[in-house]
Every structure is written in C-alpha cells, then in structure tokens.
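Risk register update: the risk that structure generation would not scale has been downgraded. Supporting records follow, first protein first.
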Amino acid sequence: MPIRYLKQSIVYFDEHFRLYPLWVSPMAIKDNGGQPGFVYPFRTEEDTVDEMYVDIGAFGTPGKEDFDNAVALPLLEKFVIEHRGYQALYARTSMSREDFRMMFDHADYDLLRERLPYCRQAFERCTTRFPRKVGFRRSR
C-alpha cells in the first residue's frame, strides 16, 4: 500500500477485521525509468513519484463479530485497488482476472506473450488459476 495510505489502511483493518497485531513492513517500489514491470511507484496527480510503500499483513482469526471472509476479502482487495496498492502474490485472493489486471500493469506482459514464439502454447497466463468471478475458489 502506498505509505501515504498507512493510517487509512490500519483504520480499515480495525473496522473490518479487528485482527491484531498487524505485520507492517516498509518497502520501496523503485522508479524503473519506464522499464517493463507489473508494479510501479505511486504517482500523484502532479506527477510526483513516491516510492515508499508498506506491506500490511494480517495473520490469525479476525475478532470482528459476524466476520465473513467471503465478504471481507473482496472488499479489502477493492480498497487496495482504489488506493493504488498491490496485494502480495503469496496471499490468498478472491480477485477476478479483471481486478488483477487493474491492480497489476499487464501491458508489457501481454506484449511479451504476443512477441515470443510459442509462449502462449508453452505457458499458462499468470491468472489461469484465478477464480472466474469474485467469490469462487477452484478446489485443488
């Protein structure tokens, strides 16, 4: 999450999860000068670059009364997208392919898949294992 939204994020977790402690780890997403990639630093409307992000991890059982993860996770992912953050790819997700494409820039990924011979035949898309729609989890 861009560090400028740290306070709003902590308030969000408190209101929707009531889960403590939270793992809060600062990190930088460096400006790579326009090189290909899935993630980029936060840019303000004035085109100022802010490379500081914070990884917020929630581990354990939420204390919020009547907590329903099937409702809470998609809402959290929506919050992250609206604040131009990124979800760690080691985390469980309920994102649709479309939401994943909104969160992560696929322009260069798509171009590469088109340009490399046999890429589409040899490798699945990075979203192949994603649910077809929010809330659906494919069993393994």
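Supporting record for the second protein:
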Amino acid sequence: MAHRKRRCWDVETVFGNIKQNTGFKRFMHRGMDKVITEIGLITMAHNLKEFSIGTVKAILVFFI
C-alpha cells in the first residue's frame, strides 16, 4: 500500500493528455509491431511538443 502512495503520477497525466488533446482513442493498425510503432510515434510527437514549449519559454526568459 505504501508503494502506491509513492508511485509517480506523471505517466498517467501524459496518457490523459495524449487522449484528450490529440483525440487519440484507438489504434489504427493491428498487430503488436504496428501498435508499438504507432504509440512510439504518438509519444514522440508529444515529447517534441513539450520540448518545443520548454524551448520557447527558455528563449523568452532569456530575452526578457
């Protein structure tokens, strides 16, 4: 029970963010290899978006 209280909640917010903001509901392909590729592309897109937001904020802080 103590382990549950200490576990990280960030992963759940990422999947919730992907589902809500991108409208991702179902996989478009069948087969484990294709699903792994698809979720990899979705998570890469999410990470690039988060990276670009952080980069823009860093640039704004630097110039302001």
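Residues 18 and 24 are 7 Å apart (CA to CA). On this basis the risk owner (M.S.) recommends closing the item.
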